[in-house]
Amino acid sequence: MAYEIGPFPLNRFRRMVACAASRILLLILGTACLPYDAEAVRLKDIASFSGVRDNQLVGYGLVVGLSGTGDKKESAFTMRSMVNMLEKQGVRVDMKQMKPKNVAAVMVTTKMPVSSKPGGKLDVTVSSLGDCTSLLGGVLILTPLKGVDGKVYALAQGSLTVGGFSIQGNQAQAQKNISTVAQVPGGAIVERSVPFDFSSQTSILMTLNVPDFSTTNQVMERINKALGGTFAKSVDAGTLTLDIPSDFQGNLVPLLASLENLEVSPDAAAKVVVDEKTGTIILGREVRISRVAVAHGNLHVIVQEGQDVSQPGPFSGGTTVVTPNTNIATREEQRNLNILEGATLQELVDALNSVGASPRDLISILRSMKAAGALHAHLEVI
Fold first, then answer.
1. What is the maximum span of the chain, computed from C-alpha positions, in angstroms?
2. Are 266 and 41 in contact, with CB atoms under 8 Å apart?
3. Given pLDDT bands bounded at 50, 70 and 90, which one contains residue 305?
4. Please, what CATH class does the domain formed by 198-264 belong to?
């Protein structure tokens, strides 16, 4: 039996589809308009997990193929390394007759993640150890990379990539960036992995990058709420322990993949960081100042030394002499007394800008305000 849809039911169906589409659109717009915490960050950006770390590897090797920019004869260790390398290849040489201008002794460093397995590749950094002027065009000879325990974990070899150049003549020199440090992308092959089973852990230690009691407590509450139980416990201002739920025993990747994307709002103590070398001032969000009056002015003293020539009169029989001349001028800036008070960071910035002082003057002002007890923040000078 066949059924035929008449014009009325078809129009009604179209209206139903249009109504449903409108509701979905309103739902999407409503979700987009929900308040968003702009200060919330992911847990993976403020904390690290135990067992997820890098291991430092280092090795000593030789770079060959340089165009006369290698080590000089004064680098005795380079000469000895060349002799040892050639003797291992079955070539006997006289060290006194060697010219190492195309060879450079280098230190090779890299970071091996704990998850690296044999056969994996690592990027290595090659740094000149002697008086080499440039590593441009060089090739790193097979170099074993060792860990702090003295065991070889990777082997490095390959052509160098240098991000600069150095050209020198008899009377001039041109240089861009640093030419005695180079990279070998994927130049190291892992030969041995770190003996560590990540998934066998029954508890994980979490360490915050910036210790803070409020942030630690917030992270603990956020994790326990997500897991539905008391699994996270705070140890101190920057450390938490997480007991692995039974459902994730031996399978930690899904658990940590969920936890590291939890969003929290980090808190921190009010701090003002001052770099006197560059005149840089960084004010934290929580910095406040009490009502205080500030007047700041500079006294400039200019001393200019010169010489005057005293010429004797005609037929006087005198001699020409040089007499010193000193000009002294002073200029003192007149600054009005300004009342400063800041309840928010913007108000604090506006108040400091109203003084009209340079960054280096602001350093003195902030120090004086701290001494007067008007600056409610930790002042750190680096």
1. 144
2. yes
3. low
4. alpha beta
Exposed/middle/buried for 173, CB within 10 Å: 0-12, 13-18, 19+? exposed
Q: Which part of the chain has CATH 3.30.70?
A: 198-264
| Residues 361, 371: Cα–Cα separation, whole Å | 16
> Contact 201/245 with Cβ under 8 angstroms?
no
CB contact set of 25 (below 8 Å; sequence gap of 6+)? none
What is the identity of the amino acid at 163? Answer: G
Structural tokens at position 356? 């009209």
Across the chain, what does the average pLDDT equal?
79
Report yes or no: 212 and 266 within 8 Å, Cβ to Cβ: yes
Q: Per-residue b/e over 326-348, b at no fewer than 16 CB within 10 Å? A: eeeeeeeeeeeeeebebeeeeeb
Yes or no: say if 181 and 127 are a contact pair by the CB < 8 Å rule: yes
Per-residue pLDDT tens digits for 212-248: 899 999 999 999 998 888 999 999 989 999 998 888 8
Residue 156: pLDDT band by 50, 70, 90 thresholds?
Answer: very high
> At how many degrees (to 10) do helices 252-259 and 213-227 cross?
130
